Amino acid sequence: GLNIPSLTVLSGLRSPFTIGNVAFDNRAAGRTAGYLMGRLTRQRGAVAIVTGGELYQAHGDREIGFRAAIRHGFQHIENIITLNGHDDQTNNYNVVKDALTQHSDLLGIYNVGGGTTGIAKALTEMDVEQEIIFLGHHLTRNSQSYLMEGTMDMVLHMNMRTVAQQTVETLIAHLEERHLES
User: In which region does residue 77 sit, left (phi positive, over 0), alpha (psi from -120 to 50) or beta (all else)?
Assistant: First the structure.
C-alpha cells in the first residue's frame, strides 16, 4: 500500500498515516447544548436527544457531552429520552411526533445531527413549538427561519472558514516539518 500522509477534517479516522485532525470539539458542543437546555427549562420533566444512531462519532460525542452537562447541573431534568431518527427528516418527524404523544412531561429536544426540518414540522403540527425548547446544530436557511419564527431556540454553529484555515495551516506545518501550536 501507499504510505500517504493524510489529514482528517471534521470526523477523525484512525490510520498510522494520519498527521492530525481538524475538528470541532463535539463533546464541548454537547455540553454547551446541555447547559443551555438546563438553563432554558425550569420545571421537572424529560428532554429528548434526537440522534442518527451510530452513524457518526461526532453525534455520539455531542450526546455524551449533553448527558454529562445535564447530569452534573440540572436535576430538574429527570429523564433523557433517546430518539433514533437516522439523521433523516421523515424519521425525525415520526420519532418526535411519537415522543410528544407519549411523554407529556417533555420539556425540550436536542438534535445532534441533521433532519431539523422533520423535528420543526412535528413541533408545529402538534402546536407545541412555543413550549418545547428546541436546540440543534448547523445554521442553514431552514434553521435560521426556525429561529426567527421561534420554533428553534438556539443553533450551535461551526465556522467552516475557520476549519478550512486550520486545515491549510496544519498541512503547511506538516510539509515544513514543524509542530503547529494550537
Answer: beta
